[in-house]
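Dear U.,

For the methods section draft, I wanted the exact inputs and outputs in one place so we can describe them consistently. I've listed the two proteins in the order they'll appear in the manuscript figures. Please don't edit the token lines directly; just add comments below if something needs changing.

First protein:
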Amino acid sequence: QPDISLYDHVRTSVAFATCLYRYHEKEGSLADTTAVKNTGDKKFLLVTGDLSGIQRYLFNLKTNAQSAKLLRARSFELRAMAESATRMVQRSFGLTRFSQIANAGGHFLIVVPNNVDTEKQMVVLRQEIETQFIERYFGDVALMLSSGVPASKSSLLQDRFGSTFAAMVADVAEAKQRKLQSGL
């Protein structure tokens, strides 16, 4: 029985289809049906992001008549920060906005192609994002971008997804330990 909406199903399918297309395009294997149908290769990289310092940034306001408006504005700004970071990652890999699987509460998940140079691209992106956060927010608010968890189609199936999810949690926890290091 389906337990998600058709919209969410199609959106997630588009994310993985686009990622597969970019993966095989870069590998030069778009016409190779054997390579495309191979479900054991780790063609996906599940990248998580975590916005830190949300509470302190939101509620570090002087109380006055405009406090409610300022709170809404800061809340919008925090959402825009995470959205902007996801767009940077998407543009870097030539993906659509649908490659963002989730974005809520300062956390997001993006699926990107796991090619040979993906790790280098992630290092550059992480450094650029962290530098911007240091310059703008002086470390009060920070966005940690994980290294990513390589995944194959088979590791995303229901019976194996638990271990993949645990690896994603550990990956973002590791990213939190090196907060703003790349930018510094």
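Second protein (the one for the lower panel):
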Amino acid sequence: HKLSEKRHEEFTYEAIIREDLKVLTNPEREIIANIACLHRQPYAKMKFDHLARLSGANQMMVKRLASLLRIADALDESGRAVVQQVRCYEEHGVVYFDLHAVSKALPERAAVLRKADLFERVYQKPVVVARNWIEKRARQAERLRQPDA
């Protein structure tokens, strides 16, 4: 961000590629740089120029991991660590991110929906964000099982 607010992704990519990390091979560094490059922009503004250097399988892996990183980043949108746990599951072709949070987590929920665009394209499934939904459904089911007093 200090180098460029507008071209943050490009500078991130270049910094990772140029850094001589002995623990990473060049192909691994290329994968990580691509993930970092795709983590911030909305899908409509993403440029996939660097992906061309990767194999088809690695391109898909980068898109999948970048889509998860975007959602993980959204889970602390407020910077207050209100989301304590995330349960992710699929029902009827929809992917649910059920947040266990200490507050309503409205900024985080909105950010997940905003940043889920890449996830929805890559996995071809819509995303729904809920808060403590599993617990709510369990309480409702328990109420239905109990006889009326």
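Candidate sentences for the figure legend, describing the second protein: The first strand starts at residue 83 and ends at 91. Residues 95 and 127 are 5 Å apart (CA to CA).

Thanks,
Y.
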